[in-house]
Amino acid sequence: MLTIPGRKGCLCDGPTRRELLRVGSVGLFGLNLANFFQWQKALGASRLEGAQGFNSAKSVILVFLQGGPSHIDIWDPKPDAPTSVRGEFKPINTNVSGIQLSETMPMLAQQMDKCTLIRSMSYTPTGLFNHTAAIYQMLTGYPPDKVSPSGQLEPPSPADFPTAGSHISKLKPPSEPVLPFVEMPRPLQESSVIGKGGAAGFLGKAYDPYRLYQDPNQPIQLEDLTLRKDVPQERLQERFAMLKGINGSMPDLEKALKDYAIDEYYGKAFDLVLSGKAREAFDLSQEPDKVRERYGRTTFGQGLLLSRRLIQAGTRFVQMNWPAVANGNPEVDAWDTHAANFGPLRNLHCPVFDRGISALIEDLSQRGMFKDTLLVTVGEFGRSPRLGVSTSGNTNSPDGRDHWPYCYTALVAGAGMHVGRVYGASDQTASSPKEKPVHPNDLLATVYYSLGIDPDMTVLNHLNQPRELVKGKPVLELW
Amino acid sequence: MRNRIWVIAVIMIAAPCGAFAADQNVTALSVTPAALVFRSPDEGMRVLVMGTTAEGEQIDLSEAARLDPAESIVKRGADGLLYPVRQGETKVTVTARGAQAQFMVRVGDLTKAPQVSFLRDVEPILNKVGCTSGTCHGSAKGKNGFKLSLRGYDPEFDYEVLLYDMSGRRFNRADPARSLMLAKPTQQVPHGGGLRIELGSRYYNTILKWISAGVPYGDPKVDRVEKLEVLPKEVFMHGPSKAQQVLALAHYSDGSVRDVTREANISSNTPEVADVDPSARVKGERKGEAALLVRYEGKFVAVPVTVLNPNPGFAWNNLPQYNYVDELIDAKLKRLKILPSPAVDDAEFLRRVSLDLIGLPPTPEELRVFITDKTDSPAKRRRMVDRLIARPEFVDHWTLKWGDLLQVSRRYLGDKGMWEFRGWIRDSIAQNKPYDKFVYELLTARGSSYENPAANFFRVTRNAKASMEKTTQLFMGVRLVCTQCHDHPFEKWTQNQYYQMTAFFGSVGLKPGFQSGDEIVYDKREDYDIKHPKTGRVVAAKYLVASIGAPPIPNSPERREALVEWLTSKDNPFFARAIANRLWSYFLGRGIIEPVDDIRASNPPANEALLEALTKDLTDHAFDLRYLMKTIVNSRAYQAGIQTNVWNDDDKVNFSHAVPRRLGAEALMDALALAAGSRPKFPEVPPDTKAEEFPDPHVGKDGFLDVFGRPARESSCECERRSDISLPQALNLVNGRTIGDAVADPKGRVAGLILEGASDRAIVEDLYLAALCRYPTAKEYDTAAAYLKSGESRAAWAQDLLWSLVNSKAFLYNR
Asked: Side-chain half-sphere of A448: how many Cα atoms within 13 Å?
């Protein structure tokens, strides 16, 4: 039996996490999770069992538009606002009467009946007003508390709050030997701060995402998931048994390394290599060309297609990041359009985004996958309704837009939610929510809730201190 | 309401403590400060009363002590503070736990109290109640149209904003109580920041008085805090659940002292160990160490807090001390009741020290020779250290390290530039160039980067600010980045200093060289001035801190020589200290100050005496880094085992035992090559090149080395090199090509052993020595031999054993 070192302590009656992990990894190579689920039930998410929308999804695709896309120029057009707000784009009708998108999103407009726009995303940042702080807030549910003495955000730390996918892969491990949480095709990044808000933090590295930092538009290299010819399954198993013996002969070292969860990684690695399921999921060549073209032969498009395949294979949480540094050059591919907004959105970003996201919605819908898959598409904030002003301290060109967390838009679909509508609304200039504001924490709570995780539950941090999973309420009216 | 809850909480905590402590008489009392001087009628002050118990423990009796003034010129308020009653001078008798002490009190002429001023009285209130915090009006853009400087670092600015913004409507001179400046924080008119100051409170009255007095600014010469003093200088508790009052005293140039405990910002850097409550009482939470950071009007003091292990039965184990390092570490451990772990055996020592000095584990032959050498162990180890330092792999290993820090990469330097720069570093290390000279050559480099490769330093940084930031962070361990926009929030560094230091690099110019890909570093003759972003004025170069013998700064573009002379001087308080600390971290896995490139008063060292001694040793030996390395690795502290005892198993900062460190990516690949007798090939380098010899991160990009955390050399930060374990790494180890190919190589170690007809026993022994650097135990021989007999092919079996050995933790970690 694999014994996995972990932290002691549990808030409730029932097995400790240590015991739980033993249960979760019975046998050398198979994650026997039946017991785990039983135990989870006993633990009692039952409070919400049967509530509307609770436990309505098995998996999540989060399309995270790092950089902060301009909500007005994409999905919350304001044709009646002054030019300085309205911008260059005109609204277009969608296949749902009464809902308009910006002309930059013609293909999504034809899928509007399959998704819902939350146009009242909003929060007021405490502290730093930059991408990383906002990304951390969006994905962990907590404002960054730690700013380095140099006034910048600290790089990822083991004491960080866990990113949503890590919480989920711990609380809802997949039932099959697949990668529970995959992040691609590049890390979250602002300047030199890489991956803040995108790691398991105090849950321990075992719950970090599998980071597929490769371009899915190119053949994907998965050397580590393919069995060697000269090492068939039985031989690998024998090797593993011997390895255990060797590790066991140095108890002091085992003790000194107990916090690093090394055995846990090895256990997972074995399961993955031996099952082969994950490997196949990554093979985009199995998709017909027509499908691949529909998504767009871009890093983003093929990444979305791969997201769908991973969900089909049983992955719990896929996070597809917009493939550009958050504060990168907008004239190339970043959403951070301080310096130039309209040209890049029209010619670079939106065509890629529109094609990809509309293909994903259409595809998930046609395959009936929305039944138990939740799709969330959002950035860390929107952009300033007024052109050319500075809201974050950055300089903006006359046609640029600055950071704007006070009001922006998210797209959700699947998990049995109502579709073809708009939830909440922004004011005349899309500057603040006119009604039903949704805090990023509420969005996170909604994601947890849909997966059958009680958003009000408490988790233990690295010091065994209880922490709220998220300080937000699920948006029940989405169902 | 909030305050009331707090009071109750204090009583509840205090009651059981008091009951327990009452039985314990003290042998002596000490009172600090020794005298109090009152100048204003509403001034409150406090003394610290410390009792010494029969066991020598210092306990805080400030709260419980009775204070009896001989003449009642002062009285004690409900808050425990002393307040003046009338002018005079008297002795106060302190009584607590059967002991007595005395201190003096003087009350000046209360009718001639100093005037309330913005600098001395009002700005501290704005800072304390949060007006100037980064989330309120101190944020870069202010809040709701009202901007103050961050944490009040610029009182002049704040004063002018208050006075002149909004056409001066913040004050109502006719009816001061109706001033907007009072109405807002007391929420008599709506205030986004909520209630900050209670109506009629002490702060309210101070501001009211100030407005009534005509809003005087104060005299910067007199009303600026000159020095902040915190009492006690150190908090030492004999166990958790004890408490200690802390006093913060502001000293002014006119000699006056003010008790600013209530206005100072006091926080603990490790609240799990010691937390501090709003009345400045430190409470021990669990054994360990913390630092109390006290901030007041731009001045900082860090107070070390120790909470001892309360368990009885501690007895010192008197391990041998190999050099001064051990003496200084043991001194601290003894005081903290931490028992060090003894040194490892010869085999473990050789593996550890080889990996740390030359980036390679020993070969089976080297191990056999070393283990069988019967010389007295410490002497034999010292000899081995000398031999390792003399090896060419030592140069490879430290070239790699400096290549990381100086960002040697073809991405910035092109192919030729990269090779030249690496070559220059290699030569410097090979000839053991003194560290001060090494830095001098880098920072004063001029000319073609091909002819003078040290000039590549500036090809990486490219502009004055980046050059300055890299210089201070890398060579002084000081981070100045934040002061580009505002004064440092936790340090004394100011925005002015950022630009003064940058001014040294203003004249560094880059222009294309005569050969393709080359660049020339030259001194610009014009446009080299650095301007302050706020005033637009030219900033004159000035050293960050004064130090003895620093040369005058020339009024010409060539300022770098002066800077480097100041920087690399033995008297520079940062330079030698930073490298001593950095080197230490390479061998012990953690800096004495951690992180190593964040040296500041609010990040105190784990062992100041040790860091000071190492620093002095380095300067006394002319910045000879090899000498310092030897001192470190020849200490028992370095050679301590990873085994822990009940007295040191949770020590993470005092170097009482070793902590396993994962091999760096390159060392891991090289150790694997040694164990398996097979090296992977890379097209960019000649065959059989060690990974530690790779010139930059472009060799083998995106492969094994990057998975295992090789730095991309995108910054000088030590944090770029990752040493964690992750799922992709486990996958790579279990199933990746690097290990799989090496183990199965038909020309590798296993193939060799089989072909030469080695016995089962010899195979097992050789593989254990090659991979784990130790002999197998009897049981391991037996298990392995039994396995061998069960298989069809001995070669396949031996491969499996080797595979398992190189996948084991004992292989992956330096232990």
From this structure: 31
